[in-house]
Amino acid sequence: MIDTLQKQNRANLWLFIATAAYFIMNGAQFWETAIMIPAWTAAPPESLFFFKGPYGLDFKNFWIIVHSSHEVLILIALVFNWKFKKTRNLMLLLLVAHMGVRVWTLQYFAPTIIEFQNMELQSVVDPSLVDKAAEWRNLNYLRVGLFFLINLGFAGLLWSNVKRNSNA
Fold first, then answer.
1. pTM score, two decimals?
2. Longest dimension (CA), the chain
3. How far is CA 115 from CA 41, 64, 70, 132, in A?
4. Phi, psi angles (nearest 5°) of residue 54
5. How far apart are CA 153 and CA 27, in angstroms?
6. Transmembrane residues, as ranges (predicted)?
7. Which is nearest to 146 in space by CA: 12, 11, 25, 18?
8. Percent over 70 (pLDDT), the chain
9. Beta carbons within 10 angstroms of residue 131's beta carbon
10. Exposure letters 51-72 (e unless 16+ CB within 10 A, then b)
11. Contacts from 61-68 at CB under 8 Å and sequence distance 24+?
């Protein structure tokens, strides 16, 4: 009994670490969505100056590191939770949902923002680019919301596990 409880506690610790890392990532997503995205999507190509020059913003490396680190932590948590069927299955479901949003990111969001970043800066506003940027921005609201909901699923699973273990 104690051995199983210790394994559950260790599994919950890794799920907590992975979920906390996900919340940190959610915070960065909210910040970028609230502050940066409205600025650069306001009036392209004129508003794309954020990405230009020697001090231009490029969040690519940041997001690669953040997502990769988080996903490694989720996989570690999954390994530690593998023996617990209900938790494992729910984690797999949430991980599949997460990966679905990641695939969408890599197929649409990343290439589109790279396209914007590579555009020549001009002191005009192109209505077709404004529409394209608005579509990207609006779909990003959905994407960030989905990431947050998936993480709430991980948090709820952790809460359920901790509650169940405290009653054991």
1. 0.93
2. 70
3. 13, 18, 26, 11
4. -65, -20
5. 16
6. 12-31, 62-80, 92-110, 141-162
7. 25
8. 98
9. 11
10. beeeeebeeeeebeebbeebbe
11. 62/28, 66/24, 66/25, 66/28, 67/25, 67/102
Residue whose pair of structure tokens reads 């609201």 in the numeric block: 141
Give the pair of three-digit tokens for residue 15.
Answer: 């799920």
DSSP string, 56-88: ----HHHHHHHHHHHHHHHHHHHHHHTTSHHHH
- DSSP code string of 9-40: HHHHHHHHHHHHHHHHHHHHHHHIIIIIHHHH
Q: What are 47-101's pLDDT values in tens digits?
A: 999 899 888 888 999 999 999 999 999 999 999 999 999 999 999 999 999 999 9
Q: What is the DSSP letter of 167?
A: T
Q: Give residue-wise pLDDT tens across range 20-30.
A: 999 999 999 99
Q: Helix, strand or coil for residue 52?
A: coil
Measured between alpha carbons, how far is 109 from 102 in angstroms, rounded to an integer?
Answer: 10
